[in-house]
Structures
1.
Amino acid sequence: MGFRQLVWALIAALLIYGAWQLLRALLAGRGRAEAASPPAAAALKADSTAAEDEDDDDSDFNYAPLPSDVVAPAAPPAPEAPAAERPDTFALELELQRLRREVGALRAALDVQQGEIGALHETVQRLLDAPPAVSNAFEDSAGQSASPEYSEALVLARRGLSVEEVAARCGITRAEAELVVSLAARGELEGGV
């Protein structure tokens, strides 16, 4: 499909959409007129059917009453609410769609926060279930120059755990665990002298 054909297809689609909107507007206008004064609408409908019987060749264009066929309403119509007080259906639909999108976004944010809260609960539970020696090791290493994120690994390495065990328990890479174990071994040698 060439560019020119694509442009023509787009124009055709826009024309169809415009015709659809025009038809909706005409039907909405008729619905309001019939709702405003039912006796006058019945008289207009009777006049339009009589005109259709007379003009069979112009039946395609007889969708609206002619201005001379308009009959005055028998009773005065009920006063309508000012335009500012009447609800606009289109605006209400737009507002409803906006609110639905906003509620969806808020629900998604709530789900993310609930997941984060669950992860925090699990972390707190793991810390509470940790053996007291490990928590004391954190307190002991706080005064030392070791980084807080490697203090547990340093304590485990000083206890004699292997590189793989230190890496698995502390969630660090093997290279980091090797460095911590070597620092722990060097610290014991310096401390023993």
2.
Amino acid sequence: MSKNSWKRFTITSQITLCFLLIFISFSHCGLFYKGVPKAGEFCYVLIKPPECLYVDFEAKKLIWNDVEYTLEEKLRMDYFFKSNDELYELTVSTVNRVELKNLTTANFNKFYMRKKDKFAEIPTPDAKHE
């Protein structure tokens, strides 16, 4: 191999290695995350005592106000359910935060933060919403 060929080879290898490292770093930051967040308890902390709900995204189940709801998935991180003939939207903002909106009533918009695993408990609903 000549000196110029060797230089081109090393420069090309370095550029390829840089692109590979950039791709690997972006693939682990959540930019290309395709899954759903793990199940957990989320709480609205602006009221005392905090109002909590439990969501299992894989099973598409929500327990809110001691009632279990089946979630309809609209997009990968948007879910819908009905309660008392009102339509609600549950949006996953981040793996640690969900937003609950009442689409029937204006001015109902709450952010729920994930409860730490060591404090979270799986509630048992009193009723199942049909």
3.
Amino acid sequence: MSHLCEVIIIAVPPSNMKDVFDSMHNSFTKNHFEIDAGEFDAIVLSDIDTDDGEDYIFESERINPESEEEKDNAIERLRNHRTGGLIYYSGIDEKFEGLAPYNLAVEFLSLDNMTIECISISLRNYVFDSHETAFENLITTVLNTMNVIGIAKGLDYPYEWSDQEVTELMKEGKLETVHPRLVYKKE
């Protein structure tokens, strides 16, 4: 059985990975989320393309930490990796009613191969629906603590759009025209 994913895309001015990662991590921790520590949780470092697009300076790397020390080292590598990558967060059980949100894929994306311009948070829609207030609080924290160009939010239908496309549309002020259902408006 497949499930749709709810996606929150945050467009930011080109910034170094460490600053963006630290700001997002602080936003998550303020809202009772922590980096997943499960045995299947991996950290992925994104690839770095050459200018000609035919080769890689760095091919993507998946890290499956087996100890706390390996996890800390992998997180540090991600914080310093210029083209970003992927890490998973979960809600802290004691801070949520019922089952805490889990398996939030947080991807830091580079559009120029040098800086981070997009953070994409995706999770199963049924997890989002049962904790919508927590995610609204997370978005509020991000808006209050980070320099944000725009935020898009909605269900991810396969092949309808890419995170990179949505980010470019937000930067150009055209998201509402092209994908109006993704426009995030604070309620």
4.
Amino acid sequence: MSEGLRLRMEFRGPELPLVRALVEEASLRARLSASARGAFGQAASEIATDAAARGADPGVVELRLGDSELRCEVTYGAAVPPRGRPDGHGPRLAESLIAGIGAPARIDVRDTPCGTSVTLSAPLPGPVRTPPVTAPPAR
């Protein structure tokens, strides 16, 4: 299966529950385990929430499915937290959640000329193998 875009969505604060639901649905369709789905969805939600809290309107979330991984990229402008508001814990929480999925899972944070890009990656499970079906002997 070649890499393909599964979702591209602009979001603001009120759409955060939808972002989480769509990431979790993509994780389910990619056959991630229940624990990996929960961690991946929560990590994406933490990054998107951090973007919205910084006032970075709109943020963009993209989900891509590759041969061996599900990737979620959240990009947002170079906004800074409003004065008097402490920095969020979203990126640190996301990093911890992604680390809990296992060694191939990762988080990549990059500053770009237009803001910040955070990519979460989770490995896809191996192919489902079932034993061959044999017909019972004829009587």
